[in-house]
Amino acid sequence: IGTACTELIIRMARARHWAPSTVAKSFSEVAAALRSLSLYSNLTVSIDLRQETVFDDARRQAQRLAQRIPARRINPMSAESFSTLLRRTTEPVLRAFLVLAWFGAARLGDLRQVSAHQIEFLDNNRVAIRYTRGKGALFRGPYTATFAVAEEPLWRWLRTFVIANTPAESSSEMSRHLF
After folding, report:
1. How far apart are CA 4 and CA 50, in angstroms?
2. How many CB atoms lie within 10 A of CB 45?
3. Residue 103 φ/ψ, nearest 5 degrees
4. HSE of 154, CA atoms in CB hemisphere, 13 A
5. Comparing C-alpha atoms, which of 161, 138, 137, 141 is closest to residue 149?
6. 17-41 CB burial, b ≥16 within 10 A, e <16
7. Which residues does the chain have with pLDDT short of 70?
8. Which of 35, 100, 152, 177 has the least C-beta neighbours within 10 A?
């Protein structure tokens, strides 16, 4: 079973172009899952892949490689690049998404799961977004992020867009995602 698990992880890593850290993480997750079999299945025994030489050697090699290769640095977008991108974006939904993501420093996956009812417009060009889904909410529970949109005309446009796309309270689409 150790050889089969090793082959599966390596095959998936090649097909999906995983980083070394992802490969190492996968080895650890598979080992932990099989070690905990008795907790979530009707089996009374667990499988310790650390006892399997092929699997354990591959796991250790993946961990060593992950430690040696530096993490990829992602260069943040400059304010000038953002302004250019925003000027060139004519699609209102994408434009609103970009504004909320930029000024709110939002996780894109979390922002995609926000409904219009979770966005509140405050005074002084401020916006509050209530996150109830996504990675951020998963780790810390539902939370609200408040931020300011630097330019008032942009804030007013965003407010008008969100209000126009907010379903009525009685609507069955009330929980529909905005993006």
Report:
1. 14
2. 7
3. -75, -25
4. 17
5. 161
6. ebebbebbebbeebbeebeeeeeee
7. 169-175
8. 152
| DSSP annotation string for 72-123 | PPPPPPPHHHHHHHHHH---HHHHHHHHHHHHHT--HHHHTT-BGGGEEE-S
Please tell me the predicted confidence (pLDDT) of residue 38: 87
Q: Which helix (H) or strand (E) element contains residue 155?
A: helix 152-164
Name the DSSP letter for residue 137: H
Q: Count how many residues are written for the chain.
A: 179
Q: Are 129 and 135 in contact (CB under 8 A)?
A: no
Phi/psi of residue 128, each to 5°?
-120, 130
Give the Cα separation of 155 and 39 in Å (integer).
51
pLDDT of residue 174: 54
Could you read off the pLDDT of 130-170 as tens digits, one per residue?
A: 999 988 888 889 999 999 999 999 999 999 999 998 887 65
**pTM (two decimals):** 0.63
